[in-house]
Amino acid sequence: MDCTTIRNGMDCLFMTAKGCSYKGGICHKIVEQCDGCNRSAEFSSGWYCAACPDPSLKWKNGNCNLASHIVSSSSATKVKINPLKASKRGSR
Questions:
Q1: How many structural domains comprise the chain?
Q2: Does a structural domain hold residue 51?
C-alpha cells in the first residue's frame, strides 16, 4: 500500500487502511552512518531510508545489511595445513 504519512506515494509494507502500523505510526529519519547510501531518499520533512522504517536498528549490532555504500571485504582465511600430509606431498 502507498504511504500517506511521510513518504507519500512510496510503497510501504506497514501501511494499512487504518494508517501506519509501525511502532509510533511514522518512519524514523536516517542516522549518520546512512550518509552516502543509495537507499536514502529526501522528502519534505528530511532524509529517510527507502528500505526500512527505523535505520538505527539496522546499525545497532554493526553494519547495516542493506547499506549500499559499505563494501564488505571477505578476508581469505589462511587454511591450516597438516605438516605430516604436507611432507608426504612434498616427497612425491
A1: 1
A2: yes
Instruction: Tell me, yes or no, if the pTM score tops 0.70.
Output: no
Residue with cell 608426504: 88
- The answer to whether position 45 is within a domain reads yes
Distances (CA, A) of 82 to 50, 63, 86, 92: 50, 35, 6, 16
Max intra-chain CA distance, the chain: 76
* SS3 (DSSP) at 89: helix
Tell me the residue range of the domain where 52 lies. Answer: 1-64
What is the average pLDDT value for the chain, to the nearest integer? Answer: 81
pLDDT score, position 74: 63
DSSP 8-state code for residue 47: E
In whole angstroms, give the CA distance from residue 55 to residue 32: 10
Q: Is residue 87 part of a domain?
A: no
Report which DSSP code applies to 30: P
